[in-house]
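Why show two proteins at once? Because comparison is the fastest way to build intuition. When a single record is shown, students tend to memorize it. When two are placed side by side, the eye starts asking what differs. So, the first record is below.
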Amino acid sequence: MPLKLPHTPAINTRALAGIGLLLAAVACFAVLDTTTKRVTAEVPLLMAVWARNFFQAIFTSALVLPRQGWSVLKTNHLAQQITRGLLMVSVTVLAFSSLGVMPVGEFTAIVMTTPLLVTLLAARLLGEHVSPFRVALVVGGFLGTAIIVRPGGGAVSWHSWHMLLPLVLVAANTAFQLLTSKMTRTETTMTTQFYTSWIGAILSSIPLFWFWTTIANPYLWLGLLLMGVAGAVGHILMIMSFERSPAATLMPYMYMQIGFAMLGGLIIFDHLPDHLSLIGIGLIAACGTAGGLLTLYERRLSQ
């Protein structure tokens, strides 16, 4: 008698597809960050910001317009779209500036404290109860950050204003994520992505009148193009992953971006974090993963 395997629900297949898409997305973001650090060593920062936004806008348009046409411009909240675009440019400038003064792996770990802060603030803004354990996870994430940027041997100099860059970046990125979460209730994902890409491209084009520099090396142009494509593909893959799996299910897997970033830093820059930095990175990843699992547990209890 043949063995009958149990039927696997379709939702599990969709969840696995969502996880796979998310892993591909965070790999793209690691490629973006690693390439950015390499390119901005020779290309002015503002030109790199422009290239990332411009090429991403072109790539996004090539994907969206053939499917949706100009209907993609229909929005219920233009002011929110503009604000999100402004925040995206701010986050990009802060991220590129941070990558200029610290390694890719440590940078990525600090940025990954954002989901912890977003979850905490979102609950408070909605008037929901926040458990002491969740507060402790946020504190643990920022303790990991403090270890990475510690005095006398951290990823950045303690006596330099550079150490403020990743911290301000986390604050700006948190505002960006909270606004994005609010906009998903009234705006389509592709409309939001289209507006954000082009607002970023337009705003970052303005400084080029003063900061344009001729780039003769074709490999640098390939790097700038790769930054835009990796950013666009990463965002689209992430959207597709969240369409297939709940955010709480996906959240723990987002921290794989730290591993991809460390791998990129090792391959391109021959850099590995020191022992204390690895402890800080591990603490951030552990707190973030626990936060995602806690959210999943709380949602199951509420059902």
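Second record. Ask yourself what differs from the first in the token line.
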Amino acid sequence: MEKKEENNTEINQSFKLSAIVGIWESLNLHPTVMIYPSKKKYFLSMLHLSDNGQAKPAVYEIQKEDSRYFIVEAFKRLYIGYDAVKDSISLSYYGEYLRN
């Protein structure tokens, strides 16, 4: 079952991270994310809202394995795909995001 979930999120893995730098808004009301470079690495940042409504920032280093980009959140890999035609990204658990 987990393998099927990963395959559904693989939109395009042959892209450069510089193509997805920017602010992205979720189509499913998940946290807005920002992707940015720092030195020779790229990071994904998002704000999670706690139960009492306070924002908790989180920053994840974007990693690559077997030509697939991902972040590690709570010991799980969230794969990042990019659709250049729609200019959208997908994060395996959070779904599709459009550039802001």
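One difference worth noting in the second protein: Confidence is low (pLDDT under 50) at residues 1-10.
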